């Protein structure tokens, strides 16, 4: 068995530990307590209000709940409108540039065909000459 000595906790720096404790108190504990107290007060007020006040506060709450959805819908609408506009512009420009691209591709194809015909011409001439020589040496058969 392997004997592993027990590890002891490292000694903390008292100044940094005190600063850490203060930061935890002011940055975590107090904000959580403050929000909890505010929510508790709001819930107590909501239960003690009359019917008319409750209706007014419910309307205000609904407005605050709808605002993020409306902002998101507005952003979506703007993005959709921009994509529709870009698509229309693209459809207007595509025929012009696609015709130019087609013309360049056809010219490229014609030049490639000319080049390959020039490369194959000597080989075809040699094959046709050898076929002519072979044909001259043969006599037509009579039946």
Question: Brief description of this entry?
Answer:
85% of the residues lie in helices and 0% in strands.
Protein architecture, described:
- The chain is elongated and about 125 Å long.
- The protein has a domain of 63 residues.
- The mean pLDDT is 88.
- It has 143 residues and is mainly alpha-helical.
As a percent range, the share of helical residues equals over 70%
Q: How many beta strands in the DSSP annotation? A: 0
From the spread of the alpha carbons, the general shape counts as: elongated
Q: Count of helices?
A: 2
Average the pLDDT over all residues and give the rounded result: 88
Radius of gyration: 44 Å
Structural class label: mainly alpha
Span of the ends, CA to CA: 106 Å
Spell out the helices and strands N to C: HH
Ordered list of secondary-structure elements with their pairings:
Blueprint: H1 14-48, H2 51-137
Features:
143 residues, mainly alpha, 85% helix, 2 helices, elongated, 0% strand
């Amino acid at each position: 068995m392997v004997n592993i000595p027990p590890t002891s906790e490292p000694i903390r720096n008292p100044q940094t530990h005190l600063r850490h404790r203060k930061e935890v108190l002011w940055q975590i504990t107090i904000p959580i307590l403050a929000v909890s107290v505010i929510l508790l007060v709001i819930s107590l007020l909501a239960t003690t209000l009359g019917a008319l006040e409750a209706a007014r506060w419910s309307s205000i709450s609904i407005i605050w709940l709808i605002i993020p959805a409306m902002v998101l819908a507005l952003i979506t609408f703007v993005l959709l409108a921009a994509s529709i506009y870009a698509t229309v512009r693209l459809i207007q420009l595509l025929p012009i540039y696609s015709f130019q691209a087609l013309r360049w591709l056809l010219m490229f194809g014609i030049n490639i065909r000319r080049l390959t015909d020039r490369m194959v011409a000597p080989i075809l001439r040699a094959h046709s000459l050898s076929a002519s020589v072979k044909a001259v040496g043969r006599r037509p058969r009579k039946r």
